[in-house]
Amino acid sequence: MKLNPFKKKAKEPKVEFTKKWEPFVFLLPFAIGVTIFTIYPLFNVILMAFKENFVLLTGKYTSLGFANFEYVMKDRYFIQGMQNTFKYVLVVIPISTCISIVIATLLNNKIKFMPFFQTAYFLPMVTSATAVGLAWKYMFHYQYGVINYLLGLIGIDPIAWLTDVSSNFTALCVYGIWNMLPFTIVLLLSGLQNIDKLYYTAARVDGASSLRIFFRITVPLLLPTIFLTMVVNSISAFKVFHELFPLWSGQPGIAYNLFTVVYYIFYQFRGLTPPKYGRAAASAVILFVVIFIFTRIQIWIQKRFDH
Questions:
Q1: Are 34 and 42 within 8 A, CB to CB?
Q2: pLDDT digit string (tens) for 184-226?
Q3: What count of other Cβ atoms lies within 10 Å of the Cβ of residue 289?
């Protein structure tokens, strides 16, 4: 049957104005919230970083310039904070990721008492960070702490985790690793459950050992999830603060030796009189740039191993 080329096409129904703009109306409350609580504070902090001698209550400042950045980059506490933050990220992220992979694999194999272990590992996600930090403070106690008690059972002398400068950073990392496990395990467990079981069946038919299956099938297929958890956890680790604050009762270590970048920001607008809002904002901007660069490097590495 031939179509008549001169036959007029049927007119498409016009979309009413109200239906066309209806999705934007539903998104409007969310857009307003993001603008007020995310976009505006971001630009406000960036602008505040260039205001010298800024006073928050009056909004007055002496001039615009890079004096806040120059001061921050030369301040030994900020340099110490940047060094401690990088060390914390480089120690906590790899260790917590490796431990989480092992635990998630065990949970995925449906071991005995799995509900108990799931509750134990996921408990920190629903517990107050301050309460958990205080609990760890008592666990690290030199005389009565459970950690030194367990070390004593294997013949290791008690360690002054919170009162010895040389042990402060180790205590912070131990707490940080434990604190990151629940979220990482949840993501890795979801990634493991999405792996097709046929891969494991074929490998067992070929006589592959469990260890070989883990490193040749599980880890490669889990790499996208592993990189995702490392990116998210790295961003969180760069903002380390609530792990530090309760262990030393609001102090950055027993001898002010554990300054981190976020604690330095807190110290500038809460620990000084008058507060130095411009310096705090400049520190926040520098931290934002560092996190952005670090994240982009991780994403670039992920794309290199995407195959």
A1: no
A2: 998 998 899 888 888 888 988 888 888 898 888 888 889 989 9
A3: 10
Q: List domains and CATH numbers for the chain.
A: 20-64 (no CATH), 74-126+167-304 (1.10.3720.10)
pTM here is: 0.85
- Asked if the model's pLDDT at residue 16 lies above 70, the reply is no
Structure tokens belonging to residue 235 = 């961003």
Number of residues assigned to the chain: 307
Strands 51-52 and 63-64: antiparallel
Tokens of 110: 């449906």
The model's pLDDT over 259-298, given as tens digits with 9 standing for 90+, comes to 999 999 999 988 777 889 999 999 999 999 999 999 999 8
Q: How far is CA 298 from CA 253, 267, 273, in A?
A: 30, 30, 39
Of 197, 239, 195, the C-alpha closest to 85 is: 239
184-204 CB burial, b ≥16 within 10 A, e <16? bbbbbbebbeebeeeeeeebe
Quote the CA–CA distance of 270 and 283 in Å, as a whole number. 14
Give the per-residue SS3 of 25-82: HHHHHHHHHHHHHHHHHHHHHHHHCCEECCCCCCCCCCEECCHHHHHHHHCHHHHHHH
Q: Please, are residues 170 and 91 in contact by the beta-carbon 8 Å criterion? A: no
Paired with 51 in beta bridges are 64
